[in-house]
Amino acid sequence: ATNAINRGILWERYETDEDEVFWKLSILNEFEQALGRGDVWVAYQPKLDLHSNAITGAEALIRWIHPDRGFIRPDRFVRAIEDAGRIDKLTLYVLERAIADFAPLGLSVAVNLSMRMLGKNKLEAPLRDLLETYGMPAEKLTLEITESATMTDDQGMAELESLRALGILISIDDYGTGQSTLSYLKRLPASELKIDQSFVRQVLTSRSDAVLINSTIKLAHELDMRVVAEGVEDQQVLDALAGMECDIIQGYHVGRPVPLAEFVSKLPHKITSATVAKTAAPRRS
Ligand code: C2E
Ligand code: MG
Ligand code: MG
Ligand code: MG
């Protein structure tokens, strides 16, 4: 019986590793083609500003709906593409889409930045170019980075400083789950903290989470940073966060990540008609 169990376990492990390797290879093989076919696209999740009670922007989230596999989890395929050293292409694709889509709306957009992009000087020139081409003011673009060791090495830090100098905003994503220390907060040129959903979801049920969120908001404000809460799924959580003076709310309660047309269709009429008037033609010079 012991042997059978051992064999079972071994077999299972073997299967899993093999599947993982195979999965990665096919994902990498198919990615470029999927981009070209439109199977890879960018969804937008609205951000609600609690001060003005208006949708002031969105987070861009990559999507891949595979003809056979269906929805592929973005964190999973993004990691595979990172591991293969091909993250630049993905990032620049999302950046161009987001800037092209949001410049005519006059709203803000946030793009997730893989840490593997930092410290290689691959961002500043294309970003400057994209903002100019589509006529987006730099302060309408936020780059979301997750807490990790690389972001505070000298090269990474210098690059973040140079992006900040262009006027682009830096946000610390999934705040509270990474290796954040107080010195990160002091050193990073960030203007926004995004409190991770794992804390937000428990704000009503866990006293310690409520205390952590409340004091994080106070701390961020003292440091002149604004605070976004992600993963807000109901009105009670929204109310609790508003009571703690959280600045911006993101989550299914406000809206799910959706294609651009659906995002725009839910905006107030004023913004939508302004977009139509301007048309989305880029200003190529
Ligand atoms: P993230 O940047 O922290 O994005 C937030 C995730 O939470 C998104 O998952 C979003 O769909 C989900 N979410 C938002 N509101 C709620 C809610 O109320 N409840 C629940 N349960 N979930 C909510 P998604 O789209 O699956 O993305 C997962 C992660 O993949 C992202 O986490 C980000 O780290 C990464 N990712 C997505 N798009 C990109 C991209 O273009 N580039 C890079 N480098 N990473 C990306
Ligand atoms: Mg994010
Ligand atoms: Mg996050
Ligand atoms: Mg996350």
UniProtKB/TrEMBL annotation:
**How is this protein named in the record?**
EAL domain-containing protein
| Membrane spanning stretches | none
Q: Which domain of life is it from?
A: Bacteria
**Interval of the full protein contained in this chain:** 488 to 772 of 777
* Ranges of residues in domain EAL: 24-271
Organism (species):
Sphingobium nicotianae
